[in-house]
Amino acid sequence: MKELLLNRYPSWNIYLEPSGECIWVSVNDNHLNYFEIQVTNNDGVGITRRKVTIGIDFSGHDEAFKSLEETLNYLDRNIL
So which domain of life are we looking at (predicted)? Predict the structure, then answer.
């Protein structure tokens, strides 16, 4: 998954954190675009645009998709 993201967004910071049945992915361009992505085998993929803050800034996903590819297409359309 990290290779896919690095190929698509080569200059972005990408962090993966496995957590139970999902993988949390934090991606950012270190400028305006900060996203949290939650990937699960059974429930699909959720994505959230977040603010740059210290600590947790998460209150639920902005969008949910069935696949990572759909999620990345959404991300491409919403990059500032």
Answer: Bacteria
Whether the Cβ atoms of residue 38 and residue 61 lie closer than 8 Å to each other: yes
| Domain range summary for the chain, segments of one domain joined by + | 2-78
80 to each of 18, 23, 53, 77, how far by Cα in Å?
A: 27, 25, 18, 9
The DSSP code for 38 is: E
Amino acid at 47: I
The rounded distance, in Å, linking the Cα atoms of 16 and 27 is: 9
What is the C-alpha separation between 11 and 28, in angstroms, rounded?
Answer: 9
pLDDT at 70 over 90: yes
pLDDT at 5 over 90: yes
